[in-house]
Amino acid sequence: IPGPAGGCRDAAGAADNAMEGGAQQSSLWEPPEQDGGPGERDGGEGPPEVKRSQPLFIHGSRGPRGWKGAIPSLGQGPPPKLIGEQEVGGWSHVCFCRVLSCWEGPDTPCPTSQVVKVFGEDGACRSLEASAATTARQLCETLVRRTRALHDHSWALVELHQHLALERCLEDHESVVEVQSSWAPGADSRFVFRKNFAKYELFKSNASLFPEVMVSSCLEANKSMAHSELIQNFLNSGSCPEVQGFLQLREAGRKVWKRFHFSLRRSGLYYSTKGTSKDPRHLHYFADLTESNIYYVTQGKKLYGTPTEFGFCIKPHKVRSGVKGLKLLCSEDEQSRSCWMAAFRLFKYGMQLYRNYQQAQARLSQPPWIGPTPLRSVSDNALVAMDFSGCTGRVIENPSEVLTAALEEAQAWRKKTTHRYSLPAACHSSPLSAAIHRTQPWFHGRISREDTQQLIGRQGLVDGVFLVRESQRNPKGFVLSLCHLQRIKHYLILPSEEEGRLYFTMDDGQTRFADLIQLVEFHQINRGILPCKLRHYCTCVAL
């Protein structure tokens, strides 16, 4: 495969193949051997030699559109394979390949596929060759292995249309090749690999995506219904909560926005031309759920003149490029927009969405590759309660004792006279302890407040999503940026020195920490002065 710098390189990820081999067999298709002899194998040790200009093909778990069969299981079939790339100056540059057509039948061992380009948040790109059956989850798992990232279900593949300022997170069961085939030739569209903590927040017990004022059943019966109860009704009977509320609608062919009352039902999305009336004479059919996708509008005010920043768009499948045919809407706040987006996904995908969540949860307990078990994230309960009151530490296993110890610890950390119980032994600060936080994935260096809000917004406005950055106003300070109730708050962390020791504090010295790592770890277990605990850290991986 010719590279952008004029050279050639074997298929990327040879080391990964060695790690993935063994107990986990992959159905790889290899092209016929060309002149120059077959690839050598040393007694079966190590991976087979991959010839240049011969990308590997992975058979998927189902055929293309039109093949009669059940919805694929996300755990079946091997993942897509990374293909040629060239390293130039430390950055990955993708080799350009000819896009092949999809294969014709499920039983035909045809070596055709499509090349899919995936971008990271830093702009770097990788190419993968995938069959028509490759799902978004399989592709994400391949990239997680390649980047050595923590394996959890929050990784997502995002469909981004830059020229339209639209983006959406692909569902785990969606065919990547099918989505790419729907793009117009030459359009500025791409796939982006990044975190999305809000992806399955819909099925979390502590979520509150459906306000009572927007659920028809609550308003008609004049009773309150918790989010968990609505979801339980959906799981038991398959009935989705009918959502209603006011939205701003952009008139077709004009830049004028008007306010209408909308209702989302199983049959589609409707709006009323007479206030909140649901009389069939006043309801107008607006959009079909099965033949459309819903997208976030990222630059609504700049491109479309939206009244607020909380715009979204319903894009019919037949609309491949251009603004014509897009159904642009705008809500009053982020909670309202999240409610409409979640309801749209429930109505369109139904129980398939919950099956995706169940399979994602099941995969967390199974190592995705052979070898040492990967590190788990803090949000996966990797932390345990410890008691350091004696000569040696011990793990607290009694839940009641854990709660009591947490309350006592929270009070102790807020008292100046009890620092000796919570802080390590007295030691003078060193350059290593002062800069050790730079090795942590939650530390993002010197990024601006605006970039921070955009990063957290892209990775999901979920309670507890956070990052730590350098302060732009205080050269020696830091900032903890935290999402709570779909709003991003910023807390200044200032260094203080006492008796030759360097501490960090967020509350004028009432609670002090030896370094930023200790500060973050404490607030992952205790809320402290924050509105919620730190649950998920924003991270960016290099592809």
UniProtKB/TrEMBL annotation:
GO cellular component: cytoplasm
Main location: cytoplasm
SH2 domain span: 442-538
Biased composition (Low complexity): 7-23
InterPro entries: BPS-dom, GRB/APBB1IP, Grb7_SH2, PH-like_dom_sf, PH_APBB1IP, PH_domain, RA_dom, SH2
Keyword tRNA processing: no
Keywords: Cytoplasm, Phosphoprotein, SH2 domain
The Ras-associating domain, residue ranges: 112-198
PH domain segment(s): 240-349
Protein origin, superkingdom: Eukaryota
Region (Disordered), start-end ranges: 1-73
Ranges of compositional bias, category Basic and acidic residues: 38-52
Subcellular localization, as worded in the UniProt entry: Cytoplasm
A Gene Ontology BP annotation from the UniProt entry: signal transduction
Protein family per UniProt: Belongs to the GRB7/10/14 family.
Official protein name in the record: GRB7 protein
Gene source species: Rhabdornis inornatus
